[in-house]
Amino acid sequence: MNEVKSVMVKTKRLMVHALMSGKDDGVPVILIHGNASSSEFWRETIEVLPAGFRGIAPDLRGFGDTEDKLIDATRGLRDWADDIMALLDELKVDRFHMAGHSLGGMLMFTLADLAGPRAMSITLVAPGSPYGFGGTKDAEGNPCWPDFAGSGGGLVNPEFARLMGEKNRESDNPQASPRIVLNSFYWKPPYRPANEEALLTSLLSEKVGPERYPGDMVPSNNWPNTAPGKFGPLNAASPKYIGDSVDRFIATKAPVLWVHGADDQIVGDFSLFDIGTLGKLGAVPGWPGEDVFPPQPMLVQTRSVLEKRKTRSGGLWTEMVIADCGHTPFVEKAEEFRAVFFPFISSSK
Questions:
Q1: Does the pLDDT of residue 245 top 90, yes or no?
Q2: Alpha helices of the chain — where are they, by DSSP H?
């Protein structure tokens, strides 16, 4: 077991909290958490990194114990990517492996371009689509509506956000209690992690408010009548602000490992967190139909982008689907995840 240290690092952009393990001269492995979580989700992974590696798991801005600064969603995921690069520069890290989960996996598509040849490998763990979360309808990431309605901060259950802000740890609201959401969607029931309390605390560490989580929104005449605002993590992850990050990612060459659970309900081609899916199921009235607003084909989009990257830039990639597994393979199927992740980073130079 590697000792895990909690450290604060002052960078040129903000004060960053990170969990670190291994020796300072080890090969760095940067591990980025997803939405409604923090570096704590990666603790058990960096505790057992093979000898010779150095684990660095930061809290993104808006999460955990990192300095609370607003996320400018109009930059897409660039605020976070710039923060990470500033952290690595401050730590004098040259080349590194990088891995991201969920929102953090989506961040890999932007970070890879900034890292360039410094990135030794890229691991995508149940990543959101490279085209953003919500509001796109085909393998090419074309928007359902010109204003990207159906994505952004206006789609979050306000009761869930309220309970998050109150640091609620109960299980009395079956639709919105953070503990129930954690145990229903982060992993496949009936799995319950031994460190559930620490992971719930991690979920509740996200900063909540109109300009934080879930972010602001603007009204739209297009179904479901809400479009992205300018602040917060969900607006940053909207396809409205992704820009040319997909083309830039396609031009990079580091090898990619893509790991996801077969029973993921958050990221998939029929995600229960996607408004197109909910419309098709009849859970949200007024759905304009499959031709206009289908469920977002998230897996199809990721696979398409990785294939284009291989064809155009020679970037090799491997996909691993873990059976009987939900959204967080490195937690619920830790041994299976490590059995592919550790050899991957060990063989990528």
A1: yes
A2: 43-47, 78-90, 103-115, 158-165, 178-181, 196-203, 233-236, 245-250, 275-280, 298-313, 329-332, 334-347
Q: Does residue 349 have a pLDDT over 80? A: no
Residue with tokens 């909540």: 208
Give CA–CA dist 231/70, Å, rounded.
7
Buried-exposed string 107-131: b where 16+ CB fall within 10 A, e elsewhere: bbbbbbbbbeebbbbbbbbbbbbbb
In the chain, where the domains are located: 4-143+243-347
* Model pLDDT, residue 210: 86
pLDDT in tens, 190-239: 999 999 999 999 999 999 998 999 999 999 999 999 999 999 999 999 99
φ/ψ of 259, rounded to 5, equals -120, 130
Q: How far apart are CA 226 and CA 147, in angstroms?
A: 9
Which pair of tokens denotes residue 297? 């084909």
Cβ 114 vs Cβ 82: under 8 Å: yes
Residues 345, 233: Cα–Cα separation, whole Å: 29
Q: How many CB atoms lie within 10 A of CB 18?
A: 23
Mean pLDDT of 292-317: 97
DSSP letter at 209? E
The Cα-based distances of 274 to 47, 162, 199, 223, 244 in angstroms read 34, 20, 24, 13, 23
Sorting pLDDT into bands at 50, 70 and 90, what band is 111?
very high
Nearest to 30 by CA among 117, 126, 109, 123: 123
Neighbours of 197 (CB within 10 A): 11
Amino acid letter, 261: G
Closest CA to 43 of 55, 35, 61, 27: 55
pLDDT of 5 > 80? The answer is yes
Any idea which fold 4-143+243-347 has?
Rossmann fold (3.40.50)
